[in-house]
Amino acid sequence: METNISIRYQHHRTGEPQIYILQVDLDFNASSSFQYLALGSKYYLTMLDDGLGLYLAISALVVAVLSYCRKYRLNLSRSPLPPGPIPLPVLGNVLSLDSARPWLTFNAWRSTYGDIIYARLLGKPIIVVNSEEVAKDLFERRSSIYSDRPQSIVYEAFASDFNTGFMPYGNRWRLHRRIFHQAFHQTAVPAYHATVLRSAHKMMFSLLRDPENYPNHLQMFIVTFMLSIIYDCEAKAKDDRVANAITRYGKLIVEGFAPAAMTLMETFPFLLQLPSWFPGATFKRASLKCIQAGHDVKEIPFQYVKERMSANDMGPCLVADALNRTSEEDDVTITAIKEAASVAFVAATDTTTNTLLVFLLAMVLNPEVQAKAQAEIDRVVGKDRLPNLDDGPALPYLEAILRETLRWYPVVPFGIPHATTTSDIYNGHFIPKGVVVFPNAWAMTHDATKYPSPDEFKPERFFQDDGTLNSDTMRLGFGWGRRICVGRHLVDASLWIAMANFLAFFSAHKALDEHGMEIPVAPKFTTGFTVRPETFPCRILPRFPDVSLKTLTRSTNLGEKL
Ligand code: HEM
């Protein structure tokens, strides 16, 4: 902050009017009072005349201004950090934390410390936001401060430095966001409805033929429509080079980003410097594989699109559309297109598959909810066709199930961490520059004052007394502000289509043991950055005894092609 102060006075001997300009340059971006003291206040005094009295007067003024500013600065830094548990030396709060599910610990700490909590994990300060109100204040109203991402040496080592979700706030990130926005903004998404519906129908064939393999079929649903939307590519046989490049990369980064492995690599970066032949250099070898897969995931699908574009054999898709808008010399944008395309895949596949698994689990555990939704579909859609998004407004209970699925078990429960670009004071709390800020989506979706009995799956909570849906469209799991999920509109459409078609055609039940007794399901969830229900025994049956492959073939026009 730079301030000019001009002082007018009469010269003590000549009586001539004089001006002193005092330029005070203060750095308010320093992240702590220590930095303030170290940086000090740089001030420059431009003397247009001299005189001892004046020197004294000016010096007094400088001291006064500086001490005022220092006091202001110290007041800023004296503001306490947000409340939180007392950290141990070196370890910080690690021992009191459920490190596999930190969102649960911070949710439990909410009653003691409140909606914004400060903690230290192995010397790293973090801030956790537990409420929607604080999240809106920080990530939306103060988005110029809270839109950065923390950086890690693991990103580059595991080919994720080009992932939009981990990228620092800046021009490269902006370019990615623009490419995503063009493809996935709210009014662009209806263009994909037909593709998504077709993929849902394919998924139903697979579920009918091989119900036990349901996690794979749900995942293939997403892979199929994403391949089409991004590369105009059909998922074909298992040796498909495009699908293989994507699946391989996805698998390797999930392994690389296992929280324990990440912590080890961040704590002991030399593990990534070891030569790959070195005994025990597991991380280095995994990193090299991942870097190769990261190269392939950008290049192989991209070359596929280029080849088809030059043969004039390309339909609309994210990559072709973006290339058509870009000059051939614009290497920066071309690289961003390759990167954004593969990021879309990674970002969409696990998250959407996991949400469908949560839905399926909820249906198995809550048969009365499933029956109610099916009755609604039968009443509105009938039994002779399958639902499509035009039926949406007439199926409010289905919409409530979708919202409740997103609320009951958000699949990115601790969000993607944000980071601050400058220090801040929020509600009297000092928020340091560069601190990592986690939006605790779990705490927000399990706030008992907003969602009574939050662990129960109750779609009814989204209805008002007059029987219409309320305005809570359950956005809490999609993040905030400038970094909000770019795929959220596509997610809404694809989840709706999958759920509606599944419920119209199938029922999910508990599996039976050899005596015909239902096997109880005790829900268990994986841990990590994204979470999903662990595979649970489940019987997926067509709802109507006369419904067969033939009926499905007739109502989808697909059958024989599959
Ligand atoms: C159920 C499915 C999904 C969930 C729950 C989900 C959730 C999230 C969350 C929590 C964030 C972080 C937001 C923040 O930092 O505040 C995010 C970011 C992101 N999502 Fe999604 N997502 C889903 C599906 C998708 C899909 C289908 C796509 C692509 C079409 C996508 C692309 C992205 C990208 C590129 C980012 C990074 C945004 C940035 O850092 O600027 N996501 N998502």
TrEMBL record:
Keyword tags: Heme, Iron, Membrane, Metal-binding, Monooxygenase, Oxidoreductase, Transmembrane, Transmembrane helix
The keyword Heme is assigned to this record: yes
Transmembrane segments: 52-69
SUPFAM superfamilies: Cytochrome P450
Pathway, per record: Secondary metabolite biosynthesis
Record-stated family: Belongs to the cytochrome P450 family.
Protein name, per record: Cytochrome P450
